[in-house]
Amino acid sequence: MTRLRALYTPLLFFVAWVLWSGLFTPLLLGLGVAVSVLVYYLSKRMGYMDNELFRVRFNMRFFGYWVWIAKEIVRSSIEVARIVLNPRLPISPRIVEINATSKHPFDQVLLGNSITLTPGTIALDVQDGVLRVHTLTQEGADALLSGEMDRRIAALRRD
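Above: the chain's sequence. Below: its structure in token form.
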């Protein structure tokens, strides 16, 4: 498993490099490979890869979650665009609190980041497993309070 991680972690770094840069020249792709390998090497040497917090299991559930969150981002983007383009601007901003099922710090960060990635919502704070979230509409608040996102993230940790 360690050798597999040594292959897919720099590859994941490289994919992030390519997605964030958006440039596909041979020089930049080569630099991306070099930097990805260097970051992995330095992280491994500093002991970051041995920390349990940085061990993410890339299984089918995790990739399934990525697909689901991508659909939620698109759906929310369309909803926010519909609200903004409406002349009456039908918003009802509010702050809600969500209890994270998982008490693991990585899961809580993933939940907060997933909420923030979804247009119309932003995670303001997380403390003792409780996330404070600003929502643009009551429907957005109801969707978060339904717990679907929290359940999906908690399911990622199950073995």
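The mean pLDDT is 88.
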